[in-house]
Amino acid sequence: MATEFHNLQELRHSASLANKVFLQRDYSDGTTCRFQTKFPSELESRIERPLFEDTVKRLNTYYAEAEKMGGQSYLEGCLACATAYLIFLCMETRYEKVLKKIGRYIQEQNEKIYAPRGLLITDPIERGMRVIEISIYEDRGSSGSCSGSSSTSGSSAR
Amino acid sequence: MSAVMIARKVRKWEKLPGKNSFCCDGRVMMARQKGVFYLTVFLIVGTCSLFFAFECPYLATHLSPAIPVFAIVLFLFVMAMLLRTSFSDPGVLPRALPEEATFIEMEIEAANGNVPAGQRPPPRIRNVQINGQIVKLKYCHTCKIFRPPRASHCSICDNCVDRFDHHCPWVGNCVGKRNYRYFYLFTLSLSLLTIYIFTFAIVHVVMRSVDSGFVKTLQDTPGTVLEVLVCFFTLWSVVGLTGFHSYLISLNQTTNEDIKGSWSGKNRLQNPYSHKNIVKNCCEVLCGPAYPSVLDRRGLTQDDLPVPASTAAQSNPVPQTTKTTAPLIPNEHTPDDAKSSIADSAISHAEKGSPSPKKEKPPTPAKVPPLASPETDVEASIIIAKEKAL
């Protein structure tokens, strides 16, 4: 039933949102940012498991890199403290640099892997770093019972 | 007859729910009640001014010019830390979008199974294991999320805050993950400043009394009495607070956890976040990475919408003044509105789902990356839906 989209533009014009899947945070290691790599059942027919797990693992690596307590973060912290944190007005923190890297990575993954399969990953920072939201699109022509399902259940649940 | 179209830039802070007040077009974020904060500023600035006016000239000439210089440096550091604590985002967690809230509700219902009619459903709790310890995550009915570990909902600001410590009226803001180290440095430096002023005020009185007599000294420098009084009473509270927070940091605990007795050792509950090493705990809290704000306060709401004049007058409050009213909360929309808005926002969301070209990043002190805020998309889409209906 593979809905073929060749790029994000095509996705936008000819697809309608069918469903959204939310990957939750994995707190087994504490409060550091990690996402569960459990493969959601809704995506089984849309994408191969190794590709998906690869993306999530890579994201987890990036977040771990951003939050790593090591020599560099201590140095940054102490230097910033010595300048009464005024240095953050002109300098970008390491976390922000990694977030930009994550943004670029997600865009690249969307363009190369997810959009052609009718999926779209939303950057977790746009959801408060709580979830990775994956939107599932259906071709507008074939959107039958699926589309709007989340909206109807949403209104009744409220 | 055509409606006048105004392209008005609405920033996301204007649409954020919760009871915060924003200044400087979203750069500053505080709680609504700021009276005690102004008192704090007044006390610090007032006492230091008296010190510079009365003590410093005498001490600079009779002891050393380094004394006022160090006092100035310390004073500036205290003010910088205070303003940083008060004006920054403590680590507010944005509320769940309708789809996410629905998804979570469905998960809860699936987990609870069938509840017989008439029986109260079980409390919404998610158990996670952290470093071998079972931690219960509670569901927040206001924000419609399961709170991450160590997060708590502040009723004064009406937000869930990550690593919530406490709401401090003296700084006029919550103290949480993002501003805890500034808060600690503020109390520490304020303790030093208070001790410094107290000591040198006494030294000054003693030295001057030797020359001119005690009563004449007090007549010459009346400010000294006030300083000594303020410092004496401040010392006890601020130094005590610094000591308390030093203790909490060494154990990697928050005030909230300490008050609730979460890791007091009963039921064999140990703190799973502690590294069991004082130095490591201190390093993590004070020198850890600077977490970014996940609230995009200064980002523009969906695509500079051309807003019809009438709708603009109704729905958008004047942004120049401090925003004090809670804006429309998306969850209160009618089902019909929500349906069309979800569809619309999803498609347009797909347009900006991949990191968007709107990375214009004004150099703000808060250093917020440009992000989509959940509520604004729905709110803006309501306007689209209304326009279509017209």
From TrEMBL, chain A:
InterPro entries assigned: Golgin_A_7/ERF4, Ras_palmitoyltransferase
Its membrane topology: Lipid-anchor
GO cellular component: Golgi membrane; palmitoyltransferase complex
Lineage: Eukaryota, Metazoa, Chordata, Craniata, Vertebrata
Gene: GOLGA7B
Keyword list, A-Z: Membrane
Domain of life, per lineage: Eukaryota
Ranges for domain Golgin subfamily A member 7/ERF4: 21-133
GO annotation terms (biological process): protein targeting to membrane
Main location: Golgi
Protein family membership: Belongs to the ERF4 family.
Protein's UniProt name: Golgin A7 family member B
Location relative to the cell: Golgi apparatus membrane
Automatic annotation (TrEMBL), chain B:
UniProt keyword annotations, A-Z: Acyltransferase, Endoplasmic reticulum, Golgi apparatus, Lipoprotein, Membrane, Palmitate, Transferase, Transmembrane, Transmembrane helix
Biased amino acid composition, Pro residues: 363-372
Biased composition (Basic and acidic residues): 349-362
Region entry Disordered, spans: 302-379
InterPro entries the record matches: Palmitoyltrfase_DHHC, PFA4/ZDH16/20/ERF2-like
GO molecular function: protein-cysteine S-palmitoyltransferase activity
Membrane topology per record: Multi-pass membrane protein
Top-level lineage group: Eukaryota
Biological process according to GO: protein targeting to membrane
Chief location category: endoplasmic reticulum
Ranges of residues in domain Palmitoyltransferase DHHC: 136-260
Listed transmembrane segments: 36-54, 66-83, 182-205, 225-244
A cellular component term, taken from the record's GO annotations: Golgi membrane
Stated name of the protein: Palmitoyltransferase
Lineage, highest ranks first: Eukaryota, Metazoa, Chordata, Craniata, Vertebrata
Gene: ZDHHC9
